[in-house]
Amino acid sequence: MRSVRDIPSFENIPILVRASLNEPIANGIVADTFRLTRTAPTLRFLAEQGARVVVISHIGELGTETLAPVAKALGELVRGVSFCPYTVGSEARAAVRGMTPSSILVMENLRRNAGEKKNDPAFAKALAELGDAFVEDSFDTCHRAHASIVGVPELLPSYAGLQLEAEVAALTDAKKPKHPAFAVVGGAKFGTKEAVLEALLPTYDRVFVGGALANDFIQALGQEVGQSLTSGVVDPTLVKLAHHPKLLLPLDSVVVKKAALGTPDAKRHARVAKRGDVRPDEVILDHGPETVALLAAHAHDAETVLWNGPLGNYENGFVDATDAFARAVASSGAHSIVGGGDTITAIQKLGVLDKFSFVSTGGGAMLDFLAKGTLPGIAALDKAPNGA
After folding, report:
1. Which of 84, 266, 346, 355 has its CB 3.0 to 4.6 Å from that of 95, i.e. a possible disulfide?
2. Domains in the chain with CATH codes
């Protein structure tokens, strides 16, 4: 994988950078700059070499959002940032030609063009016309076969940005952890976690399955989960993994009646239930104190802790287990790797993000890399034309 440092010429060269700018916007203002701070070093490096830095990214899922407020926030982290209200086409190309060396131009939301998600060759070609070289620095989207991820590298000499390099190095090391090694996989949907669980169980001493994902495993053991969120299907692989000797499941859960879910006093009516003691009209929303103690003990005994996915129904305020585990890992002294948007948000609110050894910008991308050792966006760099 060629590095951004390997680009043969920088001075006044238009370099197209696929960055990670998908930040939350509240009242027209960027509410969190986590991803911006991670991609800023690559943009700063290129600008300092005298390149014309053309930044492409997406924001939101619908394609209606604008990157204008994100460009403004990025300008507070890196000098010389401006915004172009076009993504491709004659206006976009004219804006790039008008750039001066060491300037940074953020183009409008990629997903305003349907060709992005479809990996339309014509859209990839239009993007490639904006630069003489391509830098991939958006690890969190490298698991997507989109035009800006896999299409553009077919057309331009391509390189890994500094953040992408850091992600690959850290997660490659995580696949061969120092022992004792403890992995925690939360969130939901067994279908999206099956591959990573099968990859982690042979290499980690213990793998804890938490969050709504645990409901699938508890159900596979024939135990009651009430009205809790599940994937709806119990397949043979799930049953086999549920009985794996290294796999850990919650010992107890915080539950409420389904009718109370979403009401202001839901937490007041919650109770702690042992695993399997959930009533048919109840919903599992968090892990209980016995599970929290189990997680803390494993974190403090570990040399390596890997964590992806919240442990409770975070959006409804059931944050106790997630917060407690975050504090335990932060104080453990273990080499800690964490990823996933909701997980990182939770840790940020506690003010302990800097206590983690490596914080990935990816959620699904992190899991896919741990499972497969590469991603479509990374593989595309290896196949790209050589710019030397």
Report:
1. 84
2. 4-164+375-383 (3.40.50.1260), 176-372 (3.40.50.1260)
